Each structure stands twice: as structure tokens, then as C-alpha cells.
Amino acid sequence: MFGCDGKNNKRGSITVFFCMIIVSMMAAVILVVQLADRRCSASYLDGILTLAGRSILSEYDIKLKEDYGIFAFRATEETTREKLGFYLSENQGEGLVSYEAESVELSVDLDDYCICDPDALEEQIVTASVYALPQRLMKARQTGTASATDRILRNESIIGSLPSVQISGSGFQPNFSFVKGDTDLRALIPQTGHTLLRGEYVIERFGNRLKQPLQRDGFFQNETEYVISGQLSDAGNAEKVKEYIVNIRTPINIAKIYADPERLAQATATATAAAAATGGTATAAAIFAIVLTWAVADSKKEADVLIGGGTVDGLDYEKYLLIFLCLSDRETVLLRIADLIQINLKGSYYDGFLLSEHFAGVRLQAECMGKRYEYAQQY
To answer: pTM (2 decimals)?
Structure first.
């Protein structure tokens, strides 16, 4: 009897031992399945969040892209969060590969990607200029001629909403003290870099007093001149740029007169005659005053030649515009570009168009089941 009981106890112990092993293995399997479930769900959610962000970017403004080569979508942080929530709720998945949309906490930040921000706008402009380069090499730019109408921006509401209201000063201060008689103005145009691409973008995308883009009609005729001088009328912008041409040409023409023995002799004779009338003698300062007067007159004639479609020292009117754009303050140029885009699309697209409502990217944060997700997506 005792032997039989011993065998039964031994068999019972073995049974209990195997049961414990089986239970442990089942628990381990369940744990592995749960971990796999969470990992699969996390991976799936990561993919959905990435695609949701890209879907937001895919809703870019077509008119903005077609007219100005700029990718940006119109949104607020609230509407962006609602769209992301919709994409999440419509793609919750099933089984191991799933999540509950209600358990995902979303936060959205658009501040770093507003297209009115000079850095964000410049990135778009540089990209547009690079992609447009092959087209410029393959065919000449099609343009129309500017009308004689002086367009003046008077609407205070439109003026007050312009992106450039955030900057103070005129932006481009015409200080040509660095220009000498032997200065090669071509050297003022950089061969590469963002400064050149910004300038070329303005020349290609906007009109000036000699050429107008055929594919669209802007409010100002002298758009490029507006980027340079920032006046609220075509006439004001045209006169400012003409003044800048005179200013940059005058030092060069002063040197030309001093280098021309005949003209210098005439200037000396004129100064001597003027001094003799008062009983004095011609001084170097008096001679310089005569030379300066003549140099300014020469520069005004050269400006008229450029405005008439001619060239001065091998450079045409648009090359001088490009020089001024390259010398201008970076932020001012970018914000005045934004001004023109906003003004033009208010007229040709819809009245309420504001670049401040458009963004070139989105920063997304999400939290689900204790795991955090962060994304920064942009064009």
C-alpha cells in the first residue's frame, strides 16, 4: 500500500511540474503575443501618422504653385489637427495591426513653417529657381510690354496686411561709396548662391517697366522695382530705381571724365572762368564740382538709355535690376516678394488670400499607449 501511494505521489508531482511548465510557457506565449501586438500596433500607427502628415502636405495651393512655384497649404493648427484625426480614425486597422484612434493624443505646430517667414520662403524660392533653370536654358522668357498706367496701392486694409509691414526702414539703402572708377559692375552679381537665385527668381517671376509676364496680370506693372524700392505706386518705384542707376553710375562717370584729357581740360577751363569772375583762381574742389555735375548729367542720360531698352557698359536694364536685388537686404527682398504674391492673388484668386495662412511644413506630436511619436515634415 505504501509503495503504491509513493508511486502515485511521484506521478502527481510530475504532473504538477509539467502543468507548471505548460502554464509558464502559455504565459510566456501570451506575453510575447501581447508584446508583438503592441509593437505591430506601434509600427502601424507610426506609418499612418507619417502618411497622414504627407497627406496634409499634398493639399498644397495649386494656384500658388502654378503662378509662383511655391508649395504651401492653407490651414490653422486646429484644422490640421482635425484632418490628422480624420486620417487616423479612417485607418485604425484590425487584429494585431490596429490601434484605437480615440487613444491617440495629437498636437500640431505650424509656427516654424509659415510661408511669410523669410527662411521658409527663401527655401521655396531657391528650389523653384533651381527647377526653373533648365526651362530658362531651353527657351526664352515670353513677356509682354508694360502699360503707361500708373497703378497706386491705396487700400489701407491690404497695405496693413502685407508681410513686409513687420520690417522697418526702406530696406535698400543706395550707398555706392564702394563703387570706384574701375569698378566692374558685373562683379556685383554673384555667380552662385542664394543671393543670385533670389534675384533671378524676381526677374523671372515678376514684371518690370520694360517686360511683363504673359501668363498672369499683377497689380503693379513695375513689380521688380517694388521689390527694390518698396514704393506703393508704379511711378514711385520707377523713379527710385532710375535714381539708383544714376547713383551707381556717377562714380564711374567721374573717373571717366578725369581720365579724358579733353573733358578734364574743359572742366578746368569752366572752373577757371567761374573763379575769374569773382577774382579768384580755380581750385581742385571747384573743378571736382564741375566734374560731378557733368557726371550726374551723363548718368541720367545712361539711365534713359537703359530704360529705352539699350545697354550701358554691356549691361541692360534687367542686369541693373539684378545688381540692386543682389545688393538689397535679404529679409526685405523676401518679404516684398511675399507682398507681391499676396497682392496679386487677392486680385486674381480670392479677396481673402493671406500668405500668413499658408505653411510649407508641419510639426506633429502624438502619444498612444505610453509611446511618443514626433515628426517634422515639409516640402
So the answer is: 0.84
